[in-house]
Amino acid sequence: MSRGFSSVQDGLEGIESVATRVIRRPFRFLSGRSSSGSTSAIGSLGEATSRFLGAPFRYAARGKRLFRTVDSLEKVLDLVFLPVTSVAGFAYAWVTTRRVREVLLALPVLVLILPFAYVALSASLRGRGPIASRYQEALQVARKEGRLQDAELLRAKLAQLGVDNSRTEYLEALKIVDKGDYSTGFSLMQQLAPAEAPGFAEAHYWIAFNLVRNDQSTDEQFGPTSIEERSRLAEKHLDQLRAYGVESPVVKLLHAVVLARTGRLKEAAEMLEPISDSVFAAAAMRVRLLVSLERPVEAAKQAESVNRLYLQLDVPASTLTADEHRSRVLAATLLGDELLKEQALLAWRRVDPTNVEPAVLLLRHTESLITETFTKDEFSPDALVTRLCRAEELGSPRPWLALQLRDLIELRGHSESYRFAWLGLLGSPDASDEFIELAGTTAALRGQVDQARKAFSRLTDDGQADPLVWNNYAWALMQPPQPNLLEALQAIEGALKQEPESAIYRETRGQINVLLQRWPDAIEDLEFAVQEFPENKVVHKGLGLAYDATGKKELAATHWEQSGEPRPQNPIANP
Description:
It is elongated and about 180 Å long. The chain is 76% helix and 0% strand. The relative contact order is 0.02. The chain has helices at 2-33, 36-61, 64-96, 100-126, 129-144, 148-160, 166-178, 182-192, 201-213, 227-243, 249-261, 265-272, 280-292, 296-312, 322-335, 338-351, 356-373, 381-393, 398-410, 416-427, 433-445, 449-460, 467-477, 485-498, 503-515, 519-532, 537-549, 553-563.
């Protein structure tokens, strides 16, 4: 092609030269015969005409640069097509020197070679991306179908292609775990991050974290079944992270947990020290370690960090583990702050109400605070009421509660704090009916009839009180110095409506009828009660009074004798 272009170029240049000479000759002849004035004009016209008619040839000839470029391209094309022309020349020579039959026998070989040639050419043109994508799709299908060996082979093929599929496989393993197939997910993570060699960093951390988190599990799908083996395996994965240079706080914290669970408390405390003044979880763990190592001075200093970080970082109590709640309680104990300890225990129990440990610790601490309060003259009445109600809710023994209520009643006149605390207890919505009933009974037994009536009145205002409460209310109403017998009779009827055959409640109504001098009704109730309580001297005394009033002297004498009291001269006047 370049040689042809060169020939054309030379031809065009020749045509331009010939055309120019032919056109100029007539004009030169005319200019020789013309006058001197017109000679220059005819010569100029001839020059212009020759230039105009020769312009196409001249412009065509100026393609010289293009032809030079094509000429250079010839050399390049010679180099590019040299292998092709060589192979083609060899093939041509081979075919022409062979018989037709021999050429036909070679065709099957050529047909077999063509697919490989196509694949090689396609791969060179399209790259490895489409092949890797197909391998990745096949890998996902193999895992979903449980063909782990096939999946591992495909993973190796991707590695040969230079494709790092670790991130994709890690996310796929997480999806499998989320679906509940923990065993398969754990196996995939181990392939990504073998314990003995550096692997995908996030998979190393995931394995270590789950080995530590599930240390109480005996299911083989969570790895080894013993805590010792789990801890050792977790430490190997953490060591691989350290080999990568990963020294984040979460990795240090997890490593410290492993060290602590394998008895290396000192090493765990040292690992946490650099982050224990900035990370709450690290401070919380380290304070427990220091107490276990019997280093009280350092533990007290760390306790300050625990409290400071909890407040500064505004850590939600619901996000804390049981150990971190213990650390808050321990820190408050080390600092000697009883109120802070109470708050920590309350937060722990609030977020974990089914856990027995915080309930027991809170009960003991609450009882201690109540006991301490009764040694003071001035205190917060509301705080005492809250703690009394909490102690009753947490299961403090009834006799112990009765003693606290007794002291509260007796000290009512000692200071305003005790008086307001008693009134606050009777009106507190946190006080249970059982606790108010105990308060009223305690007041009645201490001779504080008015206070007992206030307590029982709260319980019976809606008319839905328990029979025992109605009975105790009736008993308080019938006591001097200002008994209200008719109201007492209404109160005991509230109990008998619920339990009409109760000997206790029949005896109470019988005693009220004795005071009201309703003798037949009194005899009926007391005779019913004496069958249940034949040794009850109070019942026998009531029957003695009733039989004397009705003229049944012999029966009256018998009951007076069993009552153990001397028979009065005028029993009706002194019931």
